[in-house]
Amino acid sequence: MTAPGVHLREITDENRDAVRALGVRPDQELFVASVADSLEEAAATPEGAPWCRAVYDGDEPVGFVMLSWDVEPAPGVLGPYFLWRLLVDARHQGRGIGRQALTRVVDLVRADGATELLTSYQPGNGEPWPFYRAFGFEPTGELDGGEVVLRLRLTDR
């Protein structure tokens, strides 16, 4: 049965190859790691409590999200809820899928009791800051490995 609209699904043996094949435009590769690299980073960083999901539009995989899920913040680990990756495949950008996927993530972390969602971005030409600002994220004033850390307060929404 086809699930309507943009939604998140577990990554399984059945969809792993299709999800790993998703990618951003070449000019965005500086800002977003590939799905394959993200899954490897998740496996190598269990202390980050990685939570990975495929983003689907109907029955088609169109993106990927990875979060630290309810983790104790520590050196090199932001949290408790930290959006590590938000990737929308180049062929599916410009249709509001990123915003819808982020809305699903926010709904899930809020339901889990989160009061804020953190993320970060690498500054540069074509950076994702305008997307995050429009969604309501604000800079925390912190840097993490050269990346600007952002906060979305969930209690205000």
Protein model, in words:
- The protein is 24% helix and 31% strand.
- A hairpin with a 2-residue loop joins strand 2 (50-57) and strand 3.
- It has a single domain (6-153), classed as Gcn5-related N-acetyltransferase (GNAT) (Aminopeptidase), CATH 3.40.630.30.
- With 157 residues, the protein is α+β, with helices and mostly antiparallel strands.
- The protein has helices spanning 16-20, 35-44, 97-111, 129-135; strands at residues 6-9, 50-57, 60-68, 82-88, 116-121, 138-144, 147-153.
- It comes from Saccharothrix xinjiangensis.
- This is GNAT family N-acetyltransferase.
Provide keyphrases for this structure.
single chain; 157 residues; Aminopeptidase; seven-stranded mixed sheet
